[in-house]
Amino acid sequence: MSIEKLTVFDFRNLASEPIVLSDNINFIIGDNGSGKSSLLEAIFYLGHGKSFRTSQVENLVMHNKVKFVVSARDHKGLQLGVAKDFGTGLTEIRIAGEKHRQLSQLAKNIAVQVITPESFKLFFGGPKQRRRFVDLGLFHVKHMFSDSWKEFSRILKQRNACLRSKADSETLSYWTQVFCQASVSVAKLRAEYINELSQELKPWLVLMLPKLAENISISYMQGWNSKKSLHDILALNKERELKSGFSLYGAQKFDVKFLIGNVIIDNQLSRGQQKLFLLALTFAQAKLIEKVKRVKPILLIDDVGAELDLNSRTLLNQAIEELDCQVIITAIDRVAVEPLVPSDNNYKMFHVKHGLISAIGNTL
Ligand SMILES: Nc1ncnc2c1ncn2[C@@H]1O[C@H](COP(=O)(O)OP(=O)(O)OP(=O)(O)O)[C@@H](O)[C@H]1O
Ligand SMILES: [Mg+2]
């Protein structure tokens, strides 16, 4: 879906009248501390039931208020909303007029991805963000993944509990057996997906990092040595696992590495190039989601001016034009977004001041 009308109420410093967005590109301009990131965070919350900035949901409600609301109507009339009341502790989710209990229901209707100045630091910093990124794509693109992952997580929990409680060897061996099977099915879906992502990534890299594109590849590590059976590896490491109380190998430990030639990308790219790379990767994923779901994914880009020079922003503009996606971009001034204005003038511009959002004319 793409969001047509958005209402954000008492979320961080935002308490605005509803705004009407373009289904193409939206620019959100405002000073430091005005509420730009908060607006993206509210949209992200609607798509994921969590924030990209904090794991503490109580930080999201406006100071001295008890309830926040984020709701949206898409361009086809579907209404989606979430409200969190810290007085009663209740979370209310409404999708097309029907009440739901689980935040995960939201993600079935809306595919939101975000890029912030921090995200590439996190992305190149450790496996957690990379895992999250890949699994988000998997969730939307491979419909079997959601059930496989749920089942896998349940088994992993059981097996870890066995390891911690030093359960008898028959019980542990049962859970090891099912754990291996579940790991293999999850790893297979991931391998298929990474393969599709690699293919889709190529044209985006050609557009955004033309000089490097040819030599960049993605290498997938499934969570254990792919030349050996997981069962054998676990048998060899039984003592270590019992000592640590956790499963040390398996689909939960997967990672992806990005390579230029045979060398890991992280230290070979400048910060601006890292950002372009991450944008290309996100665009590739958005494209895959769009193909499968036949819905427009929503792409949030926070503080676009950071790290990107004029040339890079022009490349980004070309890429966004290629992408059939609703894009919401923040910047501290209009000058930063000038190179991103689409040639067909199909965009909207908003100004944020002290948490109030207002539409402004398109003339730059
Ligand atoms: N729970 C809250 N209630 C009220 N205000 C809050 C809350 N949490 C954060 N704020 C304030 O909201 C304001 C907006 O923050 P936000 O991060 O959205 O700004 P921004 O426009 O993205 O700024 P920058 O350009 O510096 O990134 C800040 O002044 C912040 O202190
Ligand atoms: Mg910000």
List the helices and strands and how they pair.
Elements (H helix, E strand, L loop, with lengths): L2 E9 L2 E2 L3 E2 L4 E6 L5 H13 L18 E8 L4 E7 L5 E5 L2 E3 L11 E4 L3 H7 L1 H15 L1 H22 L4 H40 L7 E6 L8 H7 L1 H7 L10 E6 L2 E2 L6 H23 L4 E4 L8 H13 L3 E6 L2 H4 L9 E7 L2 E5 L4
Parallel strand pairs: 4-14, 4-15, 9-13, 13-14
Antiparallel strand pairs: 1-2, 1-3, 1-5, 5-6, 6-7, 7-8, 10-11, 11-12, 15-16
Helix pairs in contact: 2-3, 3-4, 3-5, 4-5, 5-8, 8-9
Bound molecules: adenosine-5'-triphosphate and magnesium ion.
Magnesium ion binds next to helix 1.
What would your notes on this structure say?
The structure is a single chain. This protein is α+β, with helices and mostly antiparallel strands and 364 residues long. It has 2 domains: 1-111 and 295-364, P-loop containing nucleotide triphosphate hydrolases (Rossmann fold, 3-Layer(aba) Sandwich), CATH 3.40.50.300; 116-294, RecF/RecN/SMC, N-terminal domain (Glutathione S-transferase Yfyf (Class Pi), Chain A, domain 2), CATH 1.20.1050. The chain has 10 helices and 16 strands. It has helices at residues 36-48, 119-125, 127-141, 143-164, 169-208, 230-236, 238-244, 271-293, 310-322, 334-337, and strands at 3-11, 14-15, 19-20, 25-30, 67-74, 79-85, 91-95, 98-100, 112-115, 216-221, 255-260, 263-264, 298-301, 326-331, 347-353, 356-360. The strands form 3 sheets. Strands 1, 2, 3, 5, 6, 7 and 8 form a 7-stranded antiparallel sheet that branches. A 6-stranded mixed sheet has the order 9-13-14-4-15-16, with helices on both faces. Strands 10-11-12 form a 3-stranded antiparallel sheet. The longest helix is centred in the middle third of the chain and has 40 residues, at 169-208. The mean pLDDT is 93. It binds adenosine-5'-triphosphate and magnesium ion.
